[in-house]
């Protein structure tokens, strides 16, 4: 089942045009929500980010958030899944190919579906290996747009090298990863890149920063260098699907002793508790 044209329909009822600008320009934005126990996690933050991505790319949201929210709840009930993700995509719609916006405006196309996805427990427990590459993306990485080719190519390179994620850097400053945010711990201080135009303002990043404050950890939203990354006590990534996943190897070199560290473990515990408290 999918959410399409403001209704829950069977997959075969979805007919997206080959002239959809999302198809030939990547002219669209998206969101990935997680649901635990049948309930969307941090949904208001995801809706706010969707509204912002839509506004900044000037793609009109075709329905009010309240309608989308009602429909996503209906989608989850129809699919009878309790743990997984919802992928939602909004494109500028169908029009003959031309870079400028269509005139009159096309009807934007909003589509969403859910997939059953478990938590990546093994990676959360054991950590992952990461490679580091230049950040060749544009300067509006705060917008969650469909233009993910640099991320796709980087992740494929990681996979081919037996790693699970790629960290991006701009002239030696670590920005984020191909589909997650990056945090490091040095001398009991948690560092992460400021939420500006160079990174996606991750919902999980924000949750973890909130939990870190609650745990009385020192937090600095400051850029850090590749050298600082390589000398960190702990490194981990945050994302809707990865939650808090420790990084145990960077370009084949162990991070500290090559095992997930104590701050990462505390934040993982706090995150689990937080998720659990929402589902009571
Ligand atoms: N950065 C990038 C480039 C991403 O694709 C993602 C995943 N959406 C994130 C960070 C993490 O964001 P979130 O915690 O909202 O999933």
TrEMBL record:
Its EC number is 2.6.1.21. Gene3D superfamilies: 3.30.470.10, D-amino Acid Aminotransferase, subunit A, domain 2. CDD domains: D-AAT_like. The keyword Transferase applies. One of its GO terms (biological process) is amino acid biosynthetic process. It catalyses: D-alanine + 2-oxoglutarate = D-glutamate + pyruvate. Its cofactor is pyridoxal 5'-phosphate. It is an enzyme of class 2 (transferase). Belongs to the class-IV pyridoxal-phosphate-dependent aminotransferase family. Homodimer. This is D-alanine aminotransferase. It comes from Paenibacillus contaminans.
């Amino acid at each position: 089942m999918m959410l399409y044209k403001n209704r829950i329909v069977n997959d075969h009822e979805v007919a997206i045009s080959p002239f959809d600008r999302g198809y030939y320009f990547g002219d669209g934005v998206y969101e990935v929500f997680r649901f635990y126990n049948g309930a969307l996690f941090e949904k208001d933050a995801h809706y706010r980010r969707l509204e912002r991505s839509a506004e900044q790319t000037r793609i009109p949201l075709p329905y009010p958030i309240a309608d989308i929210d009602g429909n996503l709840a209906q989608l989850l009930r129809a699919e009878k899944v309790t743990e997984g993700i919802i992928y939602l995509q909004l494109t500028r719609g169908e029009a003959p190919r031309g870079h400028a916006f269509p005139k009159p405006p096309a009807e934007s196309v909003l589509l969403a579906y859910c997939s059953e996805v478990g938590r990546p427990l093994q990676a959360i427990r054991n950590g992952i290996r990461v490679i580091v590459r230049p950040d060749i993306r544009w300067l509006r990485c705060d917008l969650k747009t469909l233009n993910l080719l640099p991320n796709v190519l980087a992740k494929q390179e990681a996979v081919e090298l037996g790693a699970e994620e790629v960290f991006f850097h701009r002239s030696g400053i670590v920005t984020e990863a191909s589909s997650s945010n990056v945090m490091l711990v040095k001398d009991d201080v948690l560092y992460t890149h400021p939420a500006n135009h160079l990174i996606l303002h991750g919902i999980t990043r924000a949750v973890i920063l909130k939990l870190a404050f609650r745990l009385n950890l020192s937090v600095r939203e400051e850029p850090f260098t590749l050298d600082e990354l390589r000398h960190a006590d702990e490194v981990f990534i945050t994302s809707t699907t990865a939650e808090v996943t420790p990084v145990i190897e960077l370009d084949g070199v162990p991070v500290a002793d090559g095992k997930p560290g104590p701050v990462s473990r505390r934040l993982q515990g706090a995150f689990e508790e937080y998720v659990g408290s929402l589902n009571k």
